Amino acid sequence: MIEAMTETIDEFLARCSADVEDAVRKAAAAEILPRFRRLADDEVDQKSGPHDLVTDADRLAELRLTADLGALLPGSVVVGEEAVHADPATYAALQGDAPVWIVDPVDGTRQFVHGDEGFCTLVALAHRGVVLASWTYAAARDQLATAVRGQGAFLDGERLFAGPPAPGRDLVVATSHPDYTTDEQKRALRALWTDGLAPRPCGSAGLEYLAVARGELDAVAFSWEAAWDHAAGLLLVEEAGGAHLTRDGEPFRVTGGNALPFTAARDTATAHRVAELLRTAT
């Protein structure tokens, strides 16, 4: 049954990847870009606090993607950031047998609200905890990164190879905002402030993953595990030759239960180095 379903999804991706790309672009064109730098005050709300924002663009783009992606793959379900915020029980679909679209309509909402181009739309297709394909669309820059498991990562049709860091320079690592970390996670992340590393605050998670896949950023170290922030980017990094590890040395699982913080890096050696610092922090 698993093999039959996986084959069906592989066939779907061979036939419909361009349709998924089209759905992502159309959602951004209809609901996100018209509101970019034009948001009214009543189109922006807070969720858990002042750093956790949601806009009409988030909500409406997710509704459109939910309808369009579900129609493309009958029998699939959607786990979207805003739908889960409204009903946390929907997150459990990641543990089910149906193919799951994992959607973050506007990753980097804070940047979007402030008129910064550093936001993107993230879509991933997963089945039984395995991410099979992903789309990362930076609408304000009209850049689209895609990955299919076992078939490589691409940015606007050009193959991505992250490659190892240049020897002899500090590793640049984008890290979680302190507002999203527990005291224990803060201690772990502080271990990255050491010789040979150059930590900096992260922006949009999706765009940070793209920077890793492009070899422009050496690693990320994040303290939260919401699947919509990580699924698309982790596959992109993997398919560009990178690796990801949790604090206990295991690969990150989109279904949850990870030892946090975790890292994704442009090569395996860098991933192990960052994960070891996170693990041994006191």
UniProtKB/TrEMBL annotation:
It holds the Pfam family Inositol_P. The keyword Hydrolase applies. The keyword Hydrolase applies. InterPro entries: Inositol_monoP_metal-BS, Inositol_monophosphatase-like, Inositol_monophosphatase_CS. Keywords: Hydrolase, Magnesium, Metal-binding. Its EC number is 3.1.3.25. It catalyses: a myo-inositol phosphate + H2O = myo-inositol + phosphate. It is an enzyme of class 3 (hydrolase). PANTHER family: INOSITOL MONOPHOSPHATASE, INOSITOL-1-MONOPHOSPHATASE-RELATED. This is inositol-phosphate phosphatase. The lineage of its organism: Bacteria, Bacillati, Actinomycetota, Actinomycetes, Kitasatosporales.
